[in-house]
Hints:
seven-stranded antiparallel sheet; mainly beta; CATH 2.40.50.140; 15 strands; 2 domains; 3 helices
Amino acid sequence: xxxxxxxxxxxILLLFVSTLASAQPLSQAGKVSEIINVKGYIYxxxxxxxxxxxxxxxxxxxxxxxxxxxxxxxxxxxxxxxxRSFKSIIFVQGxxxxxxxxxxxxxxxxxxxxxxxxxxxxxxxxxxxxxxxxEIKPIKDGNTIADLxxxxxxxxxxxxxxRAKVMKISQNIQGKNWITLQDGTGTKPDNKLxxxxxEIVSPGDLVVVSGILKTDIDIGSGYKYKILxxxxxxxxx
Length: 237
């Protein structure tokens, strides 16, 4: 069944308007009071003002006064890697210490490679390595991405489950988060699965995902998918 969403262009316009509205001033300063390092990211809690920011890895210590520029505020952001929710966090474009630039890796950027639209929470400089063949062990009574493409006709509108690696995330597209998954199976271009969800996971996470498989999806403006996983739910079992 072909699903046409004729409001996609207006949704994209609203997304860009909201993006501009939530962009931060060109430069702000704060004192580092807490540091959390994870793969590809560093989370910093600042004092004066009291706020969390995230950026690419850098050398910084507690007590340092830093300047940060640009960025995008994410509200009610959940990090699967940290198993922690942030009421508000800013993914910033650049950080400087004592006038010396520490990084220039934009976390707040429109990633045109991520479904052609939307706000991606993965910085362009951080590359998530695709899983190799046989790297990810399939779950019992589950499927692989190759299975889903091969059996898509019989599995249409059925509940499916698989283990996969999170490659990209684009948030708040038509009220959903769009998550790209790979598990090391399938042949290009049928080696990636796109899932829509109200949940948020982090790029690089190894997850078990379940949802309803849909086939021959057309969301308009040239975006068509052989298969799509809808209402996806994630766990780390």
